[in-house]
Amino acid sequence: GAVVSQHPSWVICKSGTSVKIECRSLDFQATTMFWYRQFPKQSLMLMATSNEGSKATYEQGVEKDKFLINHASLTLSTLTVTSAHPEDSSFYICSATGLAGDTQYFGPGTRLTVL
Amino acid sequence: AQKVTQAQTEISVVEKEDVTLDCVYETRDTTYYLFWYKQPPSGELVFLIRRNSFDEQNEISGRYSWNFQKSTSSFNFTITASQVVDSAVYFCALSEDVPGRQGAQKLVFGQGTRLTINP
Q1: Is residue A107 within 8 Å of residue A8, measured between CB atoms?
Q2: pLDDT tens across A2-18, in order?
Q3: Per-residue pLDDT tens for B16-29?
Q4: Which residues in chain B have Cβ-Cβ distances shorter than 8 Å to A42?
């Protein structure tokens, strides 16, 4: 149980384009979803926390207009990187928690490369 | 603020050796959770353990064991009889309440320890 999927697993795009990444909880209802970014050989940095039907809470220093998060249902959250630039190239990972909220289950990640 | 320190950036051992990964944390919360995750080369984080701050009992799961010492704010992870498949980056993490979102907890991660098990 507690499986989280992400799509796509990797994406390459041109600078200036927007990219959408989907995060789904497959076998449980995710009351809260989280989006992280991980640069090579670094730790995970939380970008934002979202709940279904409400606005996301962004961490300090994360531009909410650049990283749009939509938590449309209890099983789906999307992250849109708008007007992507090479410095946005990174590994984006989502996680989700159920009602208990005490354990985060992670998706497999999406590797974004902006040319 | 919450902080997690994994002082060992990289560890390399020969297969079958025991290895301990250190984790020290800082928190002002009285109730919190500690976690260990494994990140193999594929990138996906694998959940290993969750420990409630009120439960200081050590835990063993197969070749894995965890030592939680509240007095020293440490939550160390030991792999006995290591195997090549244990090679990965291991992250220790600490829960933190999300402001304005009752019941939601985010994770603060340590920098990770890259463990290499050589045949």
Answers
A1: no
A2: 899 999 999 999 999 99
A3: 999 999 999 999 88
A4: 111
User: Which residues on chain B place their C-beta less than 8 Å from a C-beta of chain A?
Assistant: 33, 35, 37, 42-45, 47, 50, 91, 95, 98-101, 103-112
Q: Cα separation of B85 and A9, whole Å? A: 23
User: Tokens 């390459």 sit at which residue?
Assistant: A12
Q: How far is residue A105's CA from residue A115's CA, in Å, rounded to a whole number? A: 31
Low-confidence ranges of chain B (pLDDT < 70): 100-103
Q: What percent of chain A has pLDDT over 70?
A: 97
Distance (Å, whole) CA A68 – CA A89: 16
Strand pairing category for B10-14 and B113-118: parallel
Positive or negative: CA dihedral B10, A103, B107, A43: positive
